[in-house]
Amino acid sequence: MVDKELENITVRLSGIVSESVVDGVGFRMAIFTQGCKHDCKGCHNPQTHALDGGEVTDLKFILEEIEKDPLLDGITLSGGEPFLQPKPLAVLCREAHKRGLDVWCYSGYTYEELCALAEKDADIGALLDGIDVLIDGRFVMEKLDLKLKFRGSSNQRVLDMKKTRESGSPVWLEGME
């Protein structure tokens, strides 16, 4: 059951893929945010770059879509750049966890950059705290490697955020090094 108050929390999305097996481990819902300032050469989602593009959607709708699929293992936040909309996405992470789902997130920012941004913006810190696995770093065309799991270029990392939070420094998700 989705709380009525979540109707008033909105996020700008490029789209949703209701069932994905390529956006993280397991059966996932991939949520593509709208808006990105990184402008990575070779980005596979250039349609998500415009800050005013996409569609404004309330969290209630997203959670109702999640609840329709009992087979989901988790959700994946992608984009665009999810950290441009940290406040509603932190709430979405909390709600996903309440439903027993894990949260993966792709960001063009590195973990270290996000930590620095979180010092100035508590919402970024809250979103960072709500993520189980972070794929960090900009896509770099010159470092493209099609053999990598869940990332496009070799500079990107797949971080286990629970272990990262415990250690205070980036810890790779086991098997993704």
Bulk shape: globular
Report the β-strand fraction as a percent range.
15-25%
SSE ordering:
EEEHEHEHHEEH
Q: Figure out the total of helices.
A: 5
Describe the main β-sheet briefly: 7 strands, mixed
Low-confidence stretches: none
Kindly state the number of beta strands.
Answer: 7
The whole-number mean of residue pLDDT values reads 95
Q: Compute the CA-based radius of gyration.
A: 15 Å
Helix content: 25-40%
Placed side by side, the strands forming the largest sheet appear as 3-1-2-4-5-6-7
What gap, in angstroms, lies between the N and C termini? Answer: 38 Å
Classification by helices and strands: alpha/beta
Overview of the molecule:
By secondary structure, the protein is α/β, with parallel strands linked by helices. Helices cover 27% and strands 23% of the residues. It has helices spanning 59-67, 86-98, 111-120, 122-129, 161-167; strands at 10-20, 28-33, 55-58, 74-78, 102-107, 133-136, 157-160. Strands 3-1-2-4-5-6-7 form a seven-stranded mixed sheet. β4, α2 and β5 form a beta-alpha-beta unit. The chain is globular and about 45 Å long. The N and C termini lie far apart (38 Å). The model has no long low-confidence stretch (mean pLDDT 95).
